[in-house]
Please model this.
Amino acid sequence: MPIIMDEKYDVTKLRAGDEILFSGTVYTARDAGHKRIVETLAKGEPLPFPLQGSAIYYAGPTPTKKGEIIGSCGPTTSARMDDYTPTLLDNGLKIMIGKGNRSSAVIQSMINNGAVYLIAVGGAGALIKSKITACEDVAYLDLGCEALRKLTVKDLPLLVGIDCKGKSIL
Amino acid sequence: MRVDFVNLVWYNLYMYNHKEISNRLATAIDCALKKVDDDILRLLKEAYANEDNPRAKWALAQIIENDEIALAHNCYPCQDTGVAMLFVTVGQNATFDGSLENALTEGVRLGYADARKSIAHPLTRINTGDNTPAVIYYDVVDGDGLKVDFLAKGAGSENTSCVKMLTPSKGADGIVSAVCDIVKQAGANPCPPLLLGVGVGGTMDKACLLSKKALLRKCGQYSADTEVAKLEKRILDEINALGIGAQGLGGKHTALACAVEIAPTHIGMLPVAVTIQCHSARHTKVRF
Model:
């Protein structure tokens, strides 16, 4: 039976390989968004969203069709965020959702900060779109598909890829 | 004798209309981006039926469901609608009432109107805003025909594509082991199960181009050249013995198909290029 969780769930209870249905709030950010987040933190300025205890979904959707909530929205390759991720984890990020492997520096930072890495199915953009019930623009709208958005998801199917002890199923 | 050039042109050369090229290419791209190749869907269903690993089955079931949702709702199966790659085969007697390159570019722009705009300046990273320019290759052949093969190339898989310059002494064993090393290095990142396009021979760049052209072949169809087909089967078997599996979760299905294209090479070279294509293979052909 999958574990039902949201972003407030005690992630230290999760183990690599656990199957999850995630219902709650996630923020989308990918390459260019991460660069801005890290630059903002370096300047000591406030972020446009609450990073502490939050979940980031590595995704850049297709444009939203008229009358719909969002376009196709599958995960992108997490490894491209690896250079930025330890800084985000040190600043309170708890949950990362993406696809593929992570670097040893990210895994060490996850252990230090008690964070988890959840994997969604790469290339399942249409299926994941059907699990998104709300989408709100937050910041970096000039980045187009790379903008920071707040998504509400219902029953998003995920696996624990790497748990907060650093154990991985990949 | 006086030669009437006007009549020569009229009778011997076919003239293509640039607007028709743009419009037909745009329609074909729009349809292709919203539909995963039928052969891939069949191979995915076979993989699901033959897979024992429960995590890999979890992923394969979602991929199949995803592709069916995209088809039913006429939406993009994957948000990465890719770099537009065009492989143009043009007859040397063909003529055009405008710029062919501009007509193709306009076709890409229109075809990506509703899709994701993923093309950026490599240094400033500023997005071009319309998914152009496309990557275009031309082959000039006899006659006056015009054919365009379109391939949407996503970044997740392309970032793991690779070329190795082997020495001739490495032979077929070396080719197989080079492909295995590249796929192992890619791991879960390129969204397995994969399609592998392999280019062997030519020069470094020629091998890369062949590895892309290999992906234009009907998915799962082996080469008509029996030696090449033997190599394709061997690569596919060894890749699927790696145990990377669907989404890197383990199991028997790291790749669904492998296509190899070859070209003569230098006596001192054995270039091997691998284009890694994710399961979300979106491509089409337009014959004008």
